Amino acid sequence: MGEKILSMQGIQKYFSGVHALKGVNFDLNAGEVHALMGENGAGKSTLIKVLCGIYRKDGGTIEYFGEPVEFTHIAESQNAGISVIHQELNMMNDLTVAQNIFIGRESMLGGLINDSEMERQAQQLFDHLGVKIDPSVKLGSLTVGKQQMVEIAKAISRDCKLLVLDEPTAALTQPEVEELFKIMNELRDKGIGMIYISHRMDEINRISDRVTVMRDGEYVGTVNTADVTKDDIVKMMVGRVIMGEQKAVSNCPAEADVILEVRNLRAGKEVKNVSFKLRRGEILGFAGLMGAGRTEVARALYGADSRQGGEIFLNGKKVRIRTPEQAVRNGICYLSEDRKRYGLMLDKSVTENSVIACVDNFITAGLINDGKMKAESQKFNDMLRTKTPSMEQLLKNLSGGNQQKVIIARWLMKNADIFIFDEPTRGIDVGAKSEIYALMDELVKQGKSIIMISSELPEVLRMSDRVVVMCEGRVTGELDISEATQENIMQLATMREEN
What is the pLDDT of residues 341-388, one digit of tens each? Predict the structure, then answer.
């Protein structure tokens, strides 16, 4: 590792009376990957936004290559060689992939934007990343994972000296993660310093040189990655060990009633004659690589996307579900993998986001009972330990993990029978994961049933009673948790259909 690129000392930040950063220290050397860790709400993203000029610090000092700096706009930090891949995608769905990558830096020809040249350069980036994305298509047509790869390509296209990666792998498949790490190692060899924010312990151990831990806006400490264990880091983050073993046997009795049966579900090119059963009090895991069709199955079942065929039975009775409203009336709720697009009202309060699915329950004689609405919202968010100054706080001001909890509170208030959790802990720290796992276990003890889609095999093995595995839109296998392993799940997940 070379010279010191960055030194942040005693950083303070306040938001409407909330002390978000309390004297935080952080430094970065050239050719180093320095992991920044902490539970959701610990202040990691806030610290990065202070660094790149999105927020103004309220105290402390920042030195960049030995010189005092205070960027007042993100353009200033970009011009200084700092590139940030934010956890929340900040791109334009109606522009093409290439236009998103080079926005503000367009190739020009005769006074006109040269789209073909930008597409050529974008294709070179994707070839280097090892991903298949058409630079000429609109960004909004891509999956979350592909959009994240575009964001990564946009960042590495800049001649940066300091690269910040905030949960860059949350929506990536394992091969895409491997390719990202390969690129990061190449950047490290070139002397570029990287700040790496992730909740995935295995990634931290593999890619980082040092780890700095924050808790509740405070600096906890910095350690060399090679000198500590996963448990050591988790203890620094949350003050307790939170690790879970694989579930040995199903907690759902074999004779439990079948609450949901799906037969030969077909939807577009992504869902091909998918059939499965869900029992009362069961957690049914859906595993598979990106593009397997798991999310598409959930959205077709929920009525969010149209389907071309198949039958749905609830408690043995055939039902018609063509819209999300019909699904909710039938006791089915869906927590989308893309919560920003489909689940959240960022400019509304915690209370409004919590009660939106059951607001009719709080209307009497045509008037909304605000007090009762707030009290119920408070009860369920307290149950989930949602960190918010008040129920009036706008959702956009909460961390990603706490936004996730608000959506779960929404469906708990609705008292649904079937919960579809699509990547329920994506981008969430180990402490919040443990709370969500406990919540899911409690739901099934109450007789609720859960379909859980997850790209993290340890999560699938820890939580599921049975595992349905998909590949290229088909169900390729079903495993009782007692016989499920990462190896046989991956074998089924790569079992492509023979022509």
Answer: 666 788 899 999 998 888 888 888 888 888 899 998 999 888 877 888
CATH number at 258-493:
3.40.50.300
Rounded-to-integer distance, Cα 104 and Cα 370, Å: 45
Contacts of residue 92, Cβ cutoff 8 Å, sequence gap at least 6? 99, 100, 103, 139
CA–CA distance, 59 with 375 (Å, rounded to integer): 37
pLDDT digits (tens, 9 = 90+) for 214-223: 988 999 999 9
pTM of the predicted model as reported, rounded to 2 decimal places: 0.59
190 touches 14 (CB < 8 A): no
Residue 451 and residue 207: Cα distance in Å, rounded?
Answer: 32
Pick the CATH number of 4-238 from 2.60.40.10, 2.120.10.30, 2.102.10.10, 3.40.50.300: 3.40.50.300
